[in-house]
């Protein structure tokens, strides 16, 4: 052992000894420079010293270090400078002045620079090669070092081809020795790296990757009953230990929680904060100043915990990291080893915990699978296959009860270590079994997971293909990163769309002629339009109806109308809903975009309603109405008609066509002037087919007088301000399936009868409707839309007529009994989505009435009646 090295170790680095004999040997070989060196040592083993020490010991010359990430480079430079090694870098983020300064020094006859950090992309530039040639001519190009050498294989093939070109520098400067160092290379990888870098006469040093000071365990997030953050906080408190706060901030223990998505970083940090754990979120989406604040805050002990994407990783060398938690599984075992390897770098005990999540597992698998599906070239296919296999290994490790260290060491082809006390599986296998059992049960009960946009945006921390090192926004060559991000984003989005289209449309669906059938009670415009073949009319109808309901809620909330004050305004709102749906259907390119847009509409609408604001589309149309009125004052606008009606003697404006809202459905006989004002009350919470619809009974609706007390003479556009009785009016009036004809309701009944003319399409109404429709409407569509609602089948009319004469109490009880039976027998149809909620209610109502009028409650007959109704959809 050269005395010189030992001397420098003490004087420059302040270390009494080498960490291990392998470290000493590696440093010596690199210093001697007689052959190339390959070093594989665990994370935190002190690999940097293996080349920093020779560099510090050199009497002259420059050591060029290739490193993958600028952040890593920064940390290394600070670290090396702390040992008084003259360290510089040339990279794309430097100012021209700095670059000139460094270049000037390197091109001089006796450069001061000892250690020069560059990216593989920099090495490939002519500018750098010129410097290297100049140094070489003076015999001052001492050695090339490739740090984190596993990146050569991981990234060289795809996004950073310059890694693969490093071998050229070897060819150009054949006499300059090379060294490659890594913590995560299996024996097979070792060969690959040596090959790619064209290393010769290689001296190999390999020590086991077993980190005996790290304790690994795995918990399953979905089995923590919503207490996962409290669980994490508990783990952090345990890992930091008692008396943690008594230490000086910079010497205190700390930890990292690795998250897959940027949103997760914020969620975890804020939840921990709430639980009293000082924490900050870190990811590439933050502004540089914010990132620095969080990183420094963590380094200096302000935050005990940093919730970060994997962009916070490789360069982090903080001795007092007492824990690393994974909030999501890593994409490979190597990545997991690297990331968890940030813990316990001072050699003291540290904890590594995985909070495994089914949701993340599924989304990662799905995205890898998609990448695989879209791969066209053989090479890409192979890579995708490898990615899939690597993730499968992660899944196997976390979904099994076997020694965690054993799995990791096997991954690198190392000797199986004697773990005994360093993982959950070795210390408490029964507990692991228990947790796994719960997890498996959970897995069986959770069959699907909806992917959010964030899943696509943030695969592996937003970096895409970032791999172990995490490239979440790191600068390792701007052009490369830009290219990588653009390409990945474009391709991934395309594939996602294709995949979803394939899944949604299924075989034959797009061309299914039924999908263009005109829905009963058609709420859509241009039902024959085939703008997006895979979106059926049923789907369109469902969206349009939902939109109607929400628009009406918005309108009535804003204008202070009660929810069942319908007709003109209701028609107007429905019209807007249909227009919006059609616009979306015609302008969006495909199923996904259509649905996304509809969801967006619903969201915006909801927020507007919550804020008490009129939805912008309604506002637009109102403005158009104002404009039209200004241009042509003699014409009555829809709002004029509304005003007229409010001041008319017959203000009650109940209309069967408007009975699409979910809170109440008016049962109305469609034969002339037979309005009975009966309501079918849907089951509370009947929003999804999962809820069982059932009817309630209570007194019939009492109708409020018109709310607005506008000046009689006013015929201008009504005020669109929320009424003071907003809260009240927001509450849906309770309506009942079976109207009671108790004496106290006589008044109401009378009112209803008085209002009969307005339930038909009276002259005012027709004008208003024409007015609304003048902007659009082709005749064909208009006719199509009217078709199903026009006239009820004769049988229904008869039933209704009979129904009218039933004594109230008997009617009520019999109908109740009938409805129970029909409900029960019809419900499976609804649950399995074969009929809509409207259809369910309608069939239920009519069959019940038919049974009562026939006096037959026999289930067979009911079934037959239901079948008949289903076949004919006669009662809608
Ligand atoms: N001989 C030594 N004596 C004491 N401390 C040492 C010695 N060698 C290295 N260290 C310290 O060990 C820590 C880890 O070293 P280093 O960052 O080089 O690890 P590494 O092997 O590169 O890890 P990783 O692969 O995870 O980046 C550093 O803080 C370093 O100062």
Topology:
Elements (H helix, E strand, L loop, with lengths): L2 H9 L9 H12 L4 E4 L6 H11 L4 E5 L3 H12 L5 E3 L6 H11 L8 E4 L1 H4 L2 H12 L3 E6 L3 H7 L4 H4 L1 H7 L5 E5 L4 H10 L6 E4 L7 E7 L7 H13 L13 E5 L3 H13 L4 E4 L5 H12 L5 E4 L12 E6 L6 H8 L9 E7 L1 H17 L3 H21 L5 H8 L12 H4 L1 H17 L7 H5 L20 H32 L27 H23 L8 H20 L3 H20 L5 H16 L6 H10 L17 E3 L10 E3 L45 H5 L15 H9 L1 H4 L3 H11 L5 H8 L7 H11 L3 H24 L5 H18 L4 H14 L4
Parallel strand pairs: 1-6, 1-7, 2-4, 2-5, 3-4, 5-6, 8-13, 9-11, 9-12, 10-11, 12-13
Antiparallel strand pairs: 14-15
Helix pairs in contact: 1-3, 2-3, 16-17, 16-22, 23-24, 23-25, 24-31, 27-31, 33-35, 34-35, 34-36, 35-36
Adenosine-5'-triphosphate binds next to helix 3.
InterPro entries: DEAD/DEAH_box_helicase_dom, DNA_helicase_ATP-dep_RecQ, Helicase_ATP-bd, Helicase_C-like, P-loop_NTPase, RecQ_Zn-bd, SRI
Protein name: ATP-dependent DNA helicase
GO biological process, one term: regulation of DNA-templated transcription
